[in-house]
Amino acid sequence: MTTIQTCRYRGETLEVRIEKYRNTDITRINLVNMEGIPHMTATSFAEGFNDDRVLIKDYAENEGILKALVDAHIVEETGRYVESEYVRWPICRILGYTFDDPESKARSMAEQLGWFGQEALWAKGKGGGFWIKGFRYVSMEEAERFLKTFQWGATE
């Protein structure tokens, strides 16, 4: 667990903790009050979100938490969403926080690339980038840039 800073939500100052859902490598954002008592989980559980990207649960009892996290510079919106029949979750990026495990990061990125129609195979032995089906090899940095902008850079 890592406390990265605080945010204000409904008049209360809360600590923001970056954690993993139990028995997974999926990232979650928990908020606790200043006494350490759990207040809420601001994210929704979703496979593939085990790096700095999360789905924010900004409805029902959590309504308004997205704005609080954005205003506190804890997350930024990507402009992308995961939708179900009843709910639309914004995909956000946690600011100023990274995970150190390259294999977990690569698995997560490959899954996220797949959500956007980019079939990716991690090229661990080639320096940690990805082979993108029907495209080419891209570095980890190029893949990260794609997941932020949803556009590939110029190709050779």
Strand content: 35-45%
Radius of gyration, rounded? Answer: 16 Å
**Strands in their spatial order, largest beta sheet:** 1-2-3-4
Biggest sheet statistics? 4 strands, antiparallel
| Alpha-beta classification | alpha+beta
Mean of residue pLDDT values: 83
Low confidence ranges: none
Number of strands: 11
Please trace the helix and strand order, writing H or E for each element. EEEEEEHEEHEEEH
Shape: elongated
- Distance, first to last CA: 42 Å
Q: Give the helix proportion (percent range).
A: 10-25%
Total separate domains = 2
- Total helices: the number is 3
What this model shows, in words?
- There is one protein chain.
- The N and C termini lie far apart (42 Å).
- A four-stranded antiparallel beta sheet has the order 1-2-3-4, covered by helices on one side. The chain has a four-stranded antiparallel beta sheet with strand order 5-6-8-7, covered by helices on one side.
- A hairpin with a 4-residue loop joins strand 10 and strand 11.
- The mean pLDDT is 83.
- The relative contact order is 0.13.
- The chain has three helices and eleven strands; from the N terminus they run ββββββαββαβββα.
- By secondary structure, it is an alpha+beta fold.
- It has two domains: 93 residues, no CATH class; 48 residues, no CATH class.
- 20% of the residues lie in helices and 38% in strands.
- Helix 2 packs across helix 3.
